[in-house]
Specification:
The complex is a heterodimer of chains A (255) and B (161). Chain A contains twelve helices and no strands. Chain A is mostly helical and 255 residues long. Chain A has one domain (2-245). Chain B has 161 residues and is mainly α. Chain B has four helices and no strands. Chain B has helices at 12-39, 52-81, 87-112, 125-148. Chain B is elongated, with a radius of gyration of 18 Å. Classes of the chains: A mainly alpha (255), B mainly alpha (161).
Amino acid sequence: MLLHFNYGELFLLVISGMGILVYLVCIAISNPYYKKWPISRMILWILGVLLAVSAVVGPIAARAHHDFVFHMIGHLLLGMLAPLLLVLSAPMTLLLRTLSTSHARRLTTILRSKPVQFVTNPLTASVLNIGGLWLLYTTNLYKMMHHYLTLHVLIHIHVFLVGYLFTVSMIYIDPMPHRKSYFYRAIVFVLALTGHGILSKYIYAFPPTGVAQTQAEQGGILMYYGGDAVDLILIIIFCSQWYRACRPKNVVLSS
Amino acid sequence: MANPQYVSEKQFNPRNIWSGFLFGVGIVTFLDEAIFHQLLHWHHFYDKSTTSIGLVSDGFFHALSWFTTVGGLFLLADLRRQESLKWKTWLGGVLLGAGLFQFYDGTIQHKLMMVHQIRYNVDVLPYDVVWNLTAIIMIAIGYYLILKSKNTKPLRESEGV
């Protein structure tokens, strides 16, 4: 079975295996000193890594080369669902409690830096995320992606990273030095969702170069409703955080 | 017993209306999607005659309503948490939001922006009339409920009501 993988795919499998391993090692190192790390977060991390890698290695990735619907399944996994699960597993919190104090300080300095502040602004993250998708599907980029391996790799890395960035800029699970108000995030979120929905319908009507009409229609519908499904989870988490944040402070609980 | 937290009765009236209104806009879009797109297949996912402004309007309200369905319910939970919920006012808000959006959908989006029609290959006029009449009735009842419940007090369990 392993023989069927090429070097690139093997490399991705090794990387993701290491991703899971590092997370587990961090739990093992930090658990004696802190509260026990929740099993649920560990499961979320492992699932997230597996979903992300399933989008780029294996049957979905293989069919995505000539079937736009599978390309879209892959993108939903790589750019939306996997990032959501990974964000929910709070990797930065785990890393910060595992590192020595001096290293953790250095890491937080980076997290506080201007460039990180810029890219974790919901507006920047949304433009990078949704704008990138518009570029990919409305220009020749989609067709070129299948001709140049480097471009293919770069685009998939981009989709994953900005998916993560977008999620982390909307819901705060890990420490976030530059917090934005709930109202601001809500507005940007609705606008990003708007851009995503319009693009889905645009793809339905105007297939990207090299994609057959029927495949574009199915892919567009999948993007529309699949995006809605993942975003619903995001909205519920976002609203429940908002709900908890504005609870009345002076309530006297009756027995 | 007068609780200092509840001094401003009036500020909760708009909150009840807004919570209902947002949920109303959300739920009517959701029902539209579930009934007319998915179950009956009357509406089209994308009608090729849609204007680009129609595509933008449709996309925006779809996104907004998806958010407000959830957000409106959390606001409802917040009102209950503060024991300031007035069901009648809230319901009035729901009907007002649902009616106003349905009217916007039925007139501007369907007719002006040609987003999609209610049904295809039939005489669409009766459908349009029923659609927009339902919207107007919802607006009227919603408005009436809000007016009628304006001076009522929220139900409070802690006061033994």
